[in-house]
Design goal:
By secondary structure, the protein is mostly beta strands. It has a single domain, classed as Jelly Rolls. Helix content is about 0%, strand content about 55%. It has no helices and 8 strands. The strands form 2 sheets. It has a 4-stranded antiparallel β-sheet with strand order 1-8-3-6, with no helix packed on it. Strands 2-7-4-5 form a 4-stranded antiparallel β-sheet, with no helix packed on it. The two termini are about 15 Å apart. The relative contact order is 0.43.
């Protein structure tokens, strides 16, 4: 199953008060993540993805995901087998003067 969402990060979204997007998925195994950063982001829009109370992407919580005119794409094997079946995308602006919309997509396969 393929899920696609968009998060708009405004200029006043900060790390302490980020834009938040809840992404409902289904029971299964999260196998692929794509984060499409449009041209012009200049790496000032930052993204982190959480599940429950911990950051899951990037795996190292002291880091973030950012790019410019690039799709960050990676394979994963993350069971989503307990409710709620969602991930939460946090986005913030680190000094940019324009809002940006990041497209987030997730592929979940059956766990049976």
């Amino acid at each position: 199953m393929y899920y696609e969402f968009e998060i708009t990060v405004k200029t006043d979204d900060t790390k302490d008060k980020p834009a938040i997007l809840k992404c409902p998925l289904v029971y299964g195994i999260l196998r692929k993540v794509n984060l499409q950063f449009p041209a012009g982001v200049h790496r000032v829009t930052k993204i982190a993805i959480w599940r429950w109370e911990r950051q899951i992407f990037p795996t190292n919580p002291e880091n973030i995901i950012t790019a410019d005119n690039f799709t960050v794409s990676f394979e994963e094997y993350l069971p989503i087998i307990e409710t709620p079946f969602n991930v939460v995308v946090y986005g913030w602006n680190d000094g940019g003067s324009h809002e940006h919309t990041i497209r987030c997509s997730f592929t979940v396969i059956s766990n049976s």
